[in-house]
Amino acid sequence: MNDSPGWATPGSSPSDGDRQGTDAGRPAGDGGAQQPAQPAGDPKWSAEQPPPGQWSSPGATPPADPPQTPQPPAPSGSGWGHQPGTPYGGQYSYPGGPGQWGGPPPAAKPGVIPLRPLGLGEILDGSVATMRTHWRSVVPITLVVATVIQVISVLVQKFMLSDLPLSSAEDMTAEEAIDSLGSTLAVSVVNQFIQVLGTIIVTAMLTMIFSKAILGQHSSVSAAWRDARPQLLRLLGLTLLLALGIILLGAVLVLPGALAGNAGLAVVGVVAWLPLVIWLGIKFTLASPALMLEKSTVLKAFARSSKLVGGSWWRIFGITVLTSLIAFMVALMVVAPFQMIGLFAFGGGLDSLEDGSAQTAWGPLIFSGIGLIIAQTIIMPIQSGVTVLLYVDQRIRREGLDLELARAAGIENYGTTGG
């Protein structure tokens, strides 16, 4: 039995009642046609099969059949991209009639993605297309959050580091070096905490916008906030729990060697810790959209992500790494010119870098913040969109979510026989 939660329309809880009696929400076929029995336990067989006599091996001479009533054509744009080894879910007209093979019609595309398993290009294109098509909702969210993050970061960096002594590394005493390191770490922790809070808000609201963009529907900023707000605390708990797990894992693997003063043991711990962090990060990368769109709890969201990622870890890892590289390159191209302007026009040039005054001067801080605001406004929707579309893609591949999406988008007779 399929335990898929279906497609939770933003603002409402998913209903199990709509999925009773059919596999993953697949509608029942034409009541007048007798269908072959579905093999027990084989999820690759569609519940809808062509009537007897309409399938034949490629190249074989079809037997003489009595005249049959012509089948109406399949609804335009309501097909699946056929996967090797899997029969088509609907009944389509093939070029040349029975005995010859042909491709199904293009998949339905009510919104930013076609309703079928997605390729890398379609995931990236869907993310960018949502930002371009729904910019009136996406840009205000990311721009406001990025601005708040950077304003707080600039103020924290200015006033928490302004009391540090300005001296070169050679002239710095041990006490000054410890104070400098402690203050730098404190600023980093505060900035990261602010960044996490901002990212949670953006992720929650953009997930709702993307969920409607997939169906071809628009969402306002106020509607996205209203739909996302009930799950914000759970999303915060999910993020903090994942971060805590990573920290505790590092403490178990790295801390013993560090406390014992054994550098080799500490290095071994780090070498073991980093791959585990990457593995856990990818394993639970779909927990956020699962939490938001399925209205689930934190633990259920972790379990759903683990289930959806299973068997596709390397594919999701590759797409995630590529998205991160794209985001890094965009940030570098946007932020670097602003940093150069702030440093050389208002910060004293290279001398300020050497004596450390650049990190507390208003000019470099403000211009760097402006560059980061622009970069984050561009990057955050792309990264959030890729995560949501990966979640949707995995559910289409595993649970036939395309049928739920087609029904939610109002596409009639999707995946059914003609009639």
Summarize the structure.
This protein has helices at residues 120-133, 135-161, 174-213, 221-228, 232-259, 263-283, 287-293, 298-309, 313-346, 350-355, 362-399, 401-408. It has 419 residues and is mainly alpha-helical.
| Mean pLDDT rating | 77
Q: Characterize the main sheet.
A: none
What are the segments in which pLDDT stays under 50 over at least 5 consecutive residues? 9-66, 69-102
Number of helices: 12
Give the class from helix and strand content and strand pairing. mainly alpha
* SS strand fraction: under 5%
Amino- and carboxy-terminal Cα gap: 28 Å
Radius of gyration: 27 Å
- Number of extended strands: 0
Order of helices and strands: HHHHHHHHHHHH
Give the CA-based shape: globular
Give the helix proportion (percent range).
55-70%
**What oligomeric assembly is this protein in?**
single chain
Salient structural properties:
globular; 419 residues; mainly alpha; 12 helices
Question: How are the secondary structure elements laid out?
Answer:
Layout: H1 120-133, H2 135-161, H3 174-213, H4 221-228, H5 232-259, H6 263-283, H7 287-293, H8 298-309, H9 313-346, H10 350-355, H11 362-399, H12 401-408
Helix pairs in contact: 1-2, 1-11, 2-3, 2-11, 3-4, 3-5, 3-7, 3-11, 5-6, 5-7, 5-8, 7-8, 9-11
Task: Characterise this structure.
Helices cover 58% and strands 0% of the residues. The chain is an all-alpha fold. Helix 1 packs across helix 2.
